[in-house]
Amino acid sequence: MGGALAISIAAVIIAAIYFSYLIVKMAMEHEEKKLGLKAGDDRAEQILAETHAEMASLRERVQVLERLATDEDRRVSNEISRLGDNAGVHR
User: Fold this and answer.
1) Given this model, what pLDDT does residue 44 score?
2) pLDDT-derived band at 88, boundaries 50, 70, 90
C-alpha cells in the first residue's frame, strides 16, 4: 500500500506542476497581449496628435486665405489694375 500512496502523491505533484505551468503560460500570453494593445494605444495617440497639429495648421492657412480674399485694399488694388488693363484695350 505504501507504493500506491507514493505513486498517487507523485501523480498529484506532477499534475500540480503541469497546471501551474499552464497558468503561468496563460498569464504571460495575457501580459504580452496587454503590452501589444498599449503599443497600439500609443500609436493611436501619436496619430491623433499629428492630426490635431495638421488641423491647426490648416485652420491658420484658411484664416490667411479668408483675410486675403476679403482684404478691402487688395480688392481695390485689383479693381484698379483691371480697370487699367481694360483702358489699354480700348485705346
Assistant:
1) 80
2) low
Of the two residues 54 and 72, the one the predictor is more confident about is 54
12 within a domain of the structure (yes/no) = yes
Top pLDDT among 50 and 77 is at 50
* Structural domain of 27: 2-85
Q: How far apart are CA 30 and CA 89, in angstroms?
A: 80
Q: For residue 79, give the 3-state DSSP assignment.
A: helix
Would you say 74 and 68 are in contact if contact means Cβ atoms under 8 Å apart? yes
Residue 66's pLDDT is 81
Kindly state whether residue 17 falls inside one of the protein's structural domains.
Answer: yes
Longest CA span, the chain: 128
- Give the number of domains in the chain: 1
The C-alpha atoms of residue 56 and residue 24 are separated, in whole angstroms, by 48
Helices 2-70 and 72-90: crossing angle in degrees, nearest 10, is 50
